Amino acid sequence: MSGRQIDRERLADVILAVVVGALGTTAAAFDDGTDALGRTLVALASAALAFHRAAPRAVLAVATVLGTAYVLHAHPGPLSALPVLAAVHTAARVGHRGVAAAGGAVFLAGYVAAGPGTQDVAERAGLLAGWFLCAVVTGLADRNWQAYLRQTEQRAMEAERTREEAALRRAGEERLRIARELHDSLTHSISIVKLQAGVAVHLARKRGEEVPPALLAIQEASGEAMRELRSALQVLRDDEPAGTPALLVERARAAGLAVGLTVTGEERPLPRAVDRAAYRIVQEALTNAARHAGPAKVRVRIDYGRGSGELAIDVDDDGAADPARPPAPGTGLTGMRERVSALGGTLSAAPRAEGGFAVRARLPLGETV
Question: What 3-state DSSP class applies to 214?
C-alpha cells in the first residue's frame, strides 16, 4: 500500500469521527438532560472512531462503554446511538460480526435500563435495534463487496500477466523463426560469395597477378557480413544480456575505444525488463560510437536514482557528429527507442551542440524488482 493511500485512509477516518461527533453533539444540545459530562462522553466516543481501522474491536468497546454511560447519565434520544452505530458498522465491516452484535446489545440494554417501563422507551429501543441490525448487515455487505473487488482486481492482474507471458512467448518464437530463416537463406548465400571471392583472390595470387581491389573489397565485406549476421542471429536466439554494462565498457576498452564508466546511486538488482533494456542501450550506444565517432572519447554514466524511481543512462562521445546534419535513425536506434517506449521511459539520441553524439535514456524502475 502506498503512502498516499495510507494518508487518504487516515483523512477519511478523521472525517468520519468529526462528522459523527458533530451530529452527536448537535443532537445532545437539544436533549434537556444533557450536561457538560454528557457532551464530553459523546465527543470521546466519536473521537475513538478515528482509530477504527487500526483497532476496530477496541474502538467498538470504547464507543459502547462511553455511549452506554451517556444514556444512563442523561437519558437522551435515539441519536445518542450514532457513535456506537458507526463502531458496530466498522467492526462488522472487518469481520467481527459477533463482537459488533454484542456491542449493539450492550448499548440497547443500557438504553432500556435508562428509562424502564415506558412505551416511548420501548419504541425507541425497537427503532435502535433495527438500526444496529442494519449497521451489522451493511458492514458485512461492505466486507463482501471489498472482497469481491479484490478478487476481481487479482483476476485482472492475473489475466494481464498471462497476456504478457503469452506475448513474450510469441515474440520469442517469432525471433527463433526469423533466426532460422536468416540462417537458411542469407548465411548460405554470403558463405558462397565469401568462398568464391577467396578462391578468386587465391588463384590471382598463385598466378602472380595483381588482385583487383574490388575483389578484395568483396572478400572483406562478405567476411564482415558473416560476422554481423552471426551476431544478429545470436541476439535473435537469445535476448538475455550476456553480462553487465561494466563488462561492455571493458570489452570496448579492449577493442581500443577510449571509454569511461561512472555509476552513481545505490547499485541494486533491477527488474528483468529494465536490466535487459539497460544492457542493450549501452551496447548499442558503444557500438555506434565505435563505428561512427572515430577516435573519440566516450563517457558512460549510469544513475540508479535513489528516490527518483528511474534508471538514468547517459552515453556521450566527442566524435564527429554534427547537429546540423543529424544521422538518419538506423535499426539500432529504432530498436533502442522501442525498448524504452515499451517500458514507459524516454529516450533522446542526437548530436550534441558542442559536437559528438549523446544518448539519454530514462527507465522507470517501478516499486518492485
Answer: helix
